[in-house]
Amino acid sequence: MSASPARRFASRRGLLFGGAAASAGVFLAGCTSNDTGDDEEDSQQAPVAEESEGPPVTIGFAGPQADHGWLNAINENARSRAETYADVTLEITEGSNDTATQIGQIETLINSQVDVLVILPADGIALTQIGLTAMRAGIPVVNLDRIFDNPQAYRCWIGGDNYGMGLNAGHFIGEQLRDVQNARVVELSGPDNLELTGQRTQGFDDALANYPNIEKVARQAAEFTVESGQEVMSGLLQAQPEFDALWNHDDDQGVGALRAIDQAGRDEFIMVGGAGARSAMEAIQADDSVLKATVLYPPTMAASAIDLARALGQSRGVGGLAEFEIPSSITLYSAVVTRENVEQYLPTGFN
Known about the structure:
Elements: H1 5-16, E1 23-26, E2 57-62, H2 69-83, E3 88-92, H3 99-111, E4 116-119, H4 128-136, E5 141-144, E6 156-159, H5 162-176, E7 183-189, H6 195-208, E8 214-221, H7 226-239, E9 245-248, H8 251-264, E10 270-275, H9 278-286, E11 291-296, H10 301-313, E12 316-318, E13 329-331, E14 336-337, H11 342-345
Parallel strand pairs: 1-12, 2-3, 2-4, 4-5, 5-6, 6-13, 7-8, 7-9, 9-10, 10-11
Antiparallel strand pairs: 11-14
């Protein structure tokens, strides 16, 4: 028999505001699953490991519109991960980039009394209040990637490292060009109205500061789309008749950038991508273009968010850690994928 709303509310408040967890049952590095009968890895799914079934948990998932390969992979990772658990029911919204619509969708999930919410807000600041509303109602919130403006609006945040993306891209390029005198680098960034773009550029610049032989000679912003990548890259190629390396913030716009590069017949430089699209990894594997690496911003974070939500709903901690509670924040590492390690990361590449 299910607990009364009052008991459910009381137990949730204890979980949110300091109650000890019953056991340590989730291991995020390997993640968790009840399904051990299939050894094949989904092309967009995090690796799984066996774990015993626990109490049933209903997880509400709300994200923005999947109008980009990475966002679509986020949704697929959440769905696929939830399906591996016999004790998880996933209620997923349509997804919208309109903040009022997304707030309404989350309100519906709150009113349906889901046990835990996973929210990737279209706008973290604009949706902070609805996160606070859920937490005050005793529903733990796992804030995915785009962070709320108030830490009281979520129990746990998990997301990528935009600064780390730029830092690791910069160090990879720096090492490749260490022996090149007066090396010239260009940057094809994401939209400048996004905070994450500035973080990626800052990390890149900080890394290049360690290599006095390298100068960043140009930076242009695209829009995370194939079309904008091709258009902006064409302009960069015309303005820069010769350079040694290119860092592109996003593999979707990188498809367009590679088209422009092929059309211009340029191959004197190396290119590093960003995010970890399957097409980019396959190009790195084939080693038949200027694209030699991509820096991950892994959509598998959505699978881990489901793991965290399940852990919260079942009063579990994180396996491998001494604490009884899950962490308040988890920042994923932006690994550099090259021809040497692409086989390892290829299963996580998104379409």
